[in-house]
């Protein structure tokens, strides 16, 4: 065990505290804005702490069900949950067998297929938006959950396949041979052997996929136009689209929008760390 000197220990903890401060300051300021009145936010010079704490913005978003603002926010929250969870579930259903196949294929074929998957994921959205928009319009799927789920699956499947493949590579192939000898098929091997071992990797892939779908803005902006399918990033942007932006309301919506993904990240943080690290070392 390597012992650090007092100066090194202070440097490590000081750096960690500084990093935490840098990461938390924007969130803290967002929360302060959300509980400030319009007067506090528009006063010059700027007041860093509100003279009067008010939760009216949260009430306006959550409790005032008769207002268009609350209806828009709650509908967007429901749409984001439906789209993110559905796209993540479908992507994992495709990515798990795809990653297993890529992990067990011979070298050249495996590398070429993996390159195609990564290249698809790396393509800029603006290069795909016109054909996707035309296709969704022809099928009558614009402004629906199905359109966003389909588009997000196209983004998430290559990413989750690549992430899971690197973790499946760390699982010895010898573990597949005994079930094969006993008469098990490949799907049974994946379900009973591979997935239990790679559970942290699957959790990490699921968390990353949900976060990517939850925060996506570009396709959601173009493919939706009302509360039937509009997601949270687009709804929050709409709050700032008027002549006078209500910064307190926007901040409150931003705080509320972070609660679901932060909660998921908190409960799956062990899976995230171990899942991302397990594929980095083989053996």
Automatic annotation (TrEMBL):
CDD domains from the UniProt entry: TM_PBP2
Entry function: Part of the ABC transporter complex MalEFGK involved in maltose/maltodextrin import. Probably responsible for the translocation of the substrate across the membrane.
Transmembrane domains' residue ranges: 12-32, 81-100, 112-133, 145-164, 189-214, 247-268
Keywords, ordered alphabetically: Cell membrane, Membrane, Sugar transport, Transmembrane, Transmembrane helix, Transport
Topological type in the membrane: Multi-pass membrane protein
Protein name stated in the entry: Maltose/maltodextrin transport system permease protein MalG
Alphabetical list of PROSITE patterns matching this protein: ABC_TM1 (PS50928)
Residue stretches making up the ABC transmembrane type-1 domain: 77-268
Family: Belongs to the binding-protein-dependent transport system permease family. MalFG subfamily.
Gene source species: Kiloniella antarctica
Top-level taxon in the UniProt lineage: Bacteria
């Amino acid at each position: 065990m390597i012992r650090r000197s007092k100066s090194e220990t202070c440097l490590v903890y000081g750096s960690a505290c500084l990093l935490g401060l840098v990461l938390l300051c924007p969130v803290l300021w967002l929360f302060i804005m959300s509980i400030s009145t319009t007067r506090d936010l528009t006063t010059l010079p700027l007041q860093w702490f509100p003279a009067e704490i008010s939760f009216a913005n949260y009430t306006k978003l959550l409790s005032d069900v008769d207002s268009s603002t609350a209806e828009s926010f709650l509908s967007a929250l429901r749409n984001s949950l439906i789209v993110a969870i559905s796209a993540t579930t479908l992507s994992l259903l495709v990515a798990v067998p795809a990653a297993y196949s890529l992990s067990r294929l011979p070298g050249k074929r495996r590398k070429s297929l993996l390159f195609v998957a990564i290249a698809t994921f790396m393509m800029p959205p603006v290069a795909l938006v016109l054909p996707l928009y035309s296709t969704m319009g022809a099928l009558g799927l614009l402004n629906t959950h199905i359109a966003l789920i389909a588009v997000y699956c196209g983004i998430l499947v290559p990413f989750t396949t690549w992430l899971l493949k690197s973790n499946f590579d760390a699982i010895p192939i010898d573990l597949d041979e005994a079930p094969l000898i006993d008469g098990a098929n490949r799907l049974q091997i994946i379900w009973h052997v591979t997935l239990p071992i790679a559970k942290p990797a699957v959790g990490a892939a699921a968390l990353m996929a949900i976060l990517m779908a939850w925060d996506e803005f570009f396709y959601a902006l173009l493919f939706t136009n009302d509360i039937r399918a509009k997601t949270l990033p687009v709804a929050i942007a709409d709050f700032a689209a008027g002549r006078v932006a209500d910064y307190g309301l926007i901040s409150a919506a931003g705080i509320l929008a972070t609660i679901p993904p932060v909660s998921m990240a908190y409960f799956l943080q062990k899976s995230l760390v171990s899942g991302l690290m397990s594929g980095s070392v083989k053996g």
